TrEMBL record:
Species name: Stentor coeruleus
Name under which the protein is recorded: Secreted protein
Keyword set, alphabetical order: Signal
Highest taxon in the source lineage: Eukaryota
Signal peptide location: 1-17
Protein's UniProt keywords contain Signal: yes
Length: 136
């Protein structure tokens, strides 16, 4: 009976056209990150080819830090395209860092990797690397 109820519930959600957005996607690509409790939300998810897409990256600073920039890289067919966004903002230990990046999702079909690298201001050291994959 419980299985039947679960199947009907899933069918009702799918039939309603409701998009289920995960709380967080992706994984760390950092050896030692200075930002913890990281979450990345991508809206809409799954991405719609050629449509506006917003990535919201959040996390808590493990120590006082001035974030200099965020490098956003997108890989398609072994070729990376990178954008650098300047931040230059001080964050106290425990403060939440939020970075919002909007772009039009790709239109070419295939597999993609997206990587966010948060860089420290004075040294450009990597203080967080977060990545996820998607297909169009």
């Amino acid at each position: 009976m419980k299985s039947l109820l679960l199947i009907f519930s899933i069918h009702a959600i799918l039939a309603s056209g409701l998009k289920v957005v995960p709380l967080a996607i992706g994984s760390s690509c950092s050896l030692f990150a200075d930002i913890s409790n990281v979450q990345l939300q991508v809206t809409p998810w799954p991405m719609v080819p050629g449509s506006p897409t917003t990535c919201t990256l959040t996390g808590s600073l493990s120590k006082n830090e001035t974030i200099g920039s965020v490098q956003i890289g997108q890989e398609y067919k072994s070729t990376w395209v990178n954008n650098l966004v300047t931040i230059n903002t001080f964050y106290a230990k425990g403060q939440t860092f939020t970075f919002i990046y909007s772009f039009n999702s790709p239109t070419q079909s295939g597999s993609y990797n997206e990587k966010f690298t948060v860089l420290q201001n004075s040294t450009n050291n990597n203080i967080l690397c977060w990545q996820f994959s998607f297909s169009i």
